[in-house]
Amino acid sequence: MNHGTIRLYSYWRSSAAYRVRIALNLKGLAYEITPVHLLRDGGEQHKQAFVDLNPQQLVPVLLHGNRVLRQSMAIIEYLDETFPAPPLMPATARDRQRVRLVAQMIACDIHPVANLRVLQYLERNLGVDQAGREEWIRHWIRSGLDAIEETLADNPSTGTFCDGEQPTMADCCLVPQVFNAERFGVDMAPYATIRRIVQACNVLPEFIAARPERQPDAQAQ
Amino acid sequence: MNHGTIRLYSYWRSSAAYRVRIALNLKGLAYEITPVHLLRDGGEQHKQAFVDLNPQQLVPVLLHGNRVLRQSMAIIEYLDETFPAPPLMPATARDRQRVRLVAQMIACDIHPVANLRVLQYLERNLGVDQAGREEWIRHWIRSGLDAIEETLADNPSTGTFCDGEQPTMADCCLVPQVFNAERFGVDMAPYATIRRIVQACNVLPEFIAARPERQPDAQAQ
């Protein structure tokens, strides 16, 4: 596809960057990755070169030609409006509400509460030890996944994917969140619908290529 | 305007409910409010009658006819798609990205980190005292407003409002966040652009009618 150059500022294990990588792959868009190491040397996201791109000092940032785009859901909707096929949003206002709902249940109410900067504040300002921080992470992930499972299960709009038979922005958010849940040892047994959807996503090449361990900046564990 | 019955489950001081009240008022839609008292009796949002509407146990919930809508930004976009005039989103993909960006800088990265349920976890599980919790709130608000001020200031797309000359979803999110900032004593002096925009909003009847102290469930301080 002919389009302006696309560059993603990404960190392999960033959940928000992972969402955008999935969306770019689903759109079939070629892009280059500039890794931003969130931990090395105090965090490259805090260096002036990156702050000039994003005063929030968070990944991802997407450059599309000379446009600087930020916030993963806003980036995905932009990609969907700019490169309509295949769609990442459903056709009706009712269904779009539902896709945004699931995406926001993750991108507002799970992920930012347990993000790196919050964990660093818990550690440095409140003296919360690693066990306490990991329990914090699991608490918010479980609380969010409980509600998402209830939203998706036994709902006629739920299909192979979060909404119907094609991946949408909701799946772009769900898969990275479940990756994080497993990373931190959340018991996924209660989430049958979520597990089924994530399995359906994770056999698709667009989702596989976006996985953290496939990224150029991935590190041995 | 002729439309299905609209009912908002709201709490007067909830920042997310406040966003939706502004959007409904800007659309000129009549709606009834069902108050959900977030503190009384262990929190009415945790009672089964409300959990049946929202397994996340958060306000707001909007009923539109028989549709149950959740997540404030997803609700506002639904309202904008369903009742197009006046628009709460700009006309181009580039500008919509920018409005969603500002909205998400607030609704993802400030508000959920300092929401009631997080403060309750800090208090009950981690023993953080009131002074520590209020410093937590101010820290995340300041960090977010710093980045928003930089995003809005000296940007040609910024107008009387966050994006151009009409209120958008970004303003629906910004005004409640600044209300919260002032409530918790954040020094607003560094945020000249934000203050100017919020002042422009807060003289409009649609924003005035949405204010917490104007709500049926508002309490004397």
Automatic annotation (TrEMBL), chains A, B:
Matching InterPro entries: Glutathione-S-Trfase_C-like, Glutathione-S-Trfase_C_sf, Glutathione_S-Trfase, Glutathione_S-Trfase_N, GST_Zeta, GST_Zeta_C, GST_Zeta_N, Thioredoxin-like_sf
Record GO terms (molecular function): glutathione transferase activity; maleylacetoacetate isomerase activity
One cellular component (GO) term of this entry: cytoplasm
PROSITE patterns: GST_CTER, GST_NTER
Residue ranges occupied by any GST N-terminal domain in the UniProt entry: 4-87
Gene3D superfamilies noted in UniProt: 1.20.1050.10, Glutaredoxin
Residue ranges of every copy of the GST C-terminal domain listed in the record: 92-220
GO biological process: glutathione metabolic process; L-phenylalanine catabolic process
NCBIfam families noted in UniProt: maiA (TIGR01262)
Family to which this protein belongs: Belongs to the GST superfamily. Zeta family.
Protein name per Swiss-Prot or TrEMBL: Maleylacetoacetate isomerase
